[in-house]
Design a protein that fits this description.
Number of helices: 13
Number of domains: 1
Number of strands: 0
Order of helices and strands: HHHHHHHHHHHHH
Distance between the termini: 63 Å
Structural class: mainly alpha
């Protein structure tokens, strides 16, 4: 504790910074080393050196972009809208509970858009590109997402939530999101599985199995998925879970290709000889959509899988 107090003093940390540090220290110092040791002891090989290094690289790249944009763009935009906020004043406890709930709901909307619009999927796909699933997969960030994520927070500042508090709530739920990227925990008690996103729920989200595509998109609460029909329980008895993309990346360890491969694919589709309407479809329709049926969306694949294709 004396060491932590010294760190607090040296860096002149705010209360929010202290909370984030205390929340994240166990993840980096205990949980990740523990999962590595456990998986190797059980010979399950959850980790490989190359994939882990890619996860760290993408996280650092994302953090750098996020830091620069937050200083020069994100906070500036949110502060601009904050001056037009409603005159709503809440008790502190109610304020923070509502902020976390609202931020988590808006994350669900953002996440849904990322999976159903190819333009956003081109950004988000890096997070899903690893064939491994472990705690460091949570670091495998969607590198360019800081360029537009803050727009989803505008409704919150208009409701009189401070931009700084919004980013804190987001960081807190993202830290929780790292913890569910694990195969070490199978199932939690039923009431937790019903309300919160758990490792079991999020394994489904990262799976490339056809029934699991575009499912379980919550970060903190799974109730949004239950409410809007995107929830699917994990069923390892039916088929083994396969992580990653339905079509693996050709050069998964290339530092540029890992971020840009979907943009390259979009460029090729836009170069096809077809109508402007179809070209716009390659940008704004769901991933996998094609005007000639040569590739298929997750819904089309699931319809085939279930034998309900029209």
């Amino acid at each position: 504790m004396a060491i932590l107090e010294k760190i607090f003093q040296v860096f002149n940390m705010s209360f929010q910074d202290k909370v984030m540090l205390l929340f994240n220290i166990p993840i980096y110092a205990l949980f990740i080393p523990g999962e590595i040791i456990l998986s190797n002891f059980l010979r399950q090989k959850f980790y490989s050196l190359k994939e882990t290094l890619v996860n760290i690289y993408l996280n650092l790249l994302n953090a750098g972009i996020d830091f620069l944009l937050r200083i020069f763009v994100s906070l500036t935009v949110l502060q601009f809208f904050f001056q037009y906020h409603l005159d709503i004043h809440l008790p502190p406890a109610v304020y923070w509970i509502l902020l976390v709930l609202a931020e988590d709901f808006l994350f669900y909307i953002e996440h849904f858009a990322d999976h159903h619009c190819r333009l956003f999927w081109a950004v988000h796909v890096t997070h899903h590109s690893s064939p491994e699933y472990n705690l460091t997969t949570g670091f495998r960030s969607s590198v360019l997402m800081p360029m537009y994520r803050f727009f989803y927070f505008i409704p919150l500042v208009l409701l009189n939530f401070s931009p700084v508090d919004i980013f804190f709530a987001y960081a807190l739920t993202q830290s929780y999101g790292i913890l569910v990227h694990t195969q070490a925990i199978k199932k939690l008690p039923g009431w937790i599985e019903y309300i919160f996103v758990t490792p079991s729920h999020h394994r489904v989200h990262h799976a490339s199995n056809i029934p699991y595509l575009d499912k379980n998109m919550g970060m903190l609460l799974i109730i949004w998925d239950r409410m809007f029909g995107t929830f699917v329980p994990e069923d390892t008895d039916k088929e083994a879970t396969i992580y990653g993309l339905t079509k693996p990346i050709e050069k998964p360890f290339h530092p540029v290709h890992i971020v840009t491969h979907e943009w390259v694919a979009i460029g090729k589709d836009l170069g096809r000889k077809t109508s402007l309407r179809n070209k716009l479809g390659y940008l704004f329709r769901p991933p996998g959509w094609s005007h000639d049926g040569s590739t298929k969306t997750s819904k089309q694949l699931q319809a085939e899988y279930n034998g309900t294709e029209q």
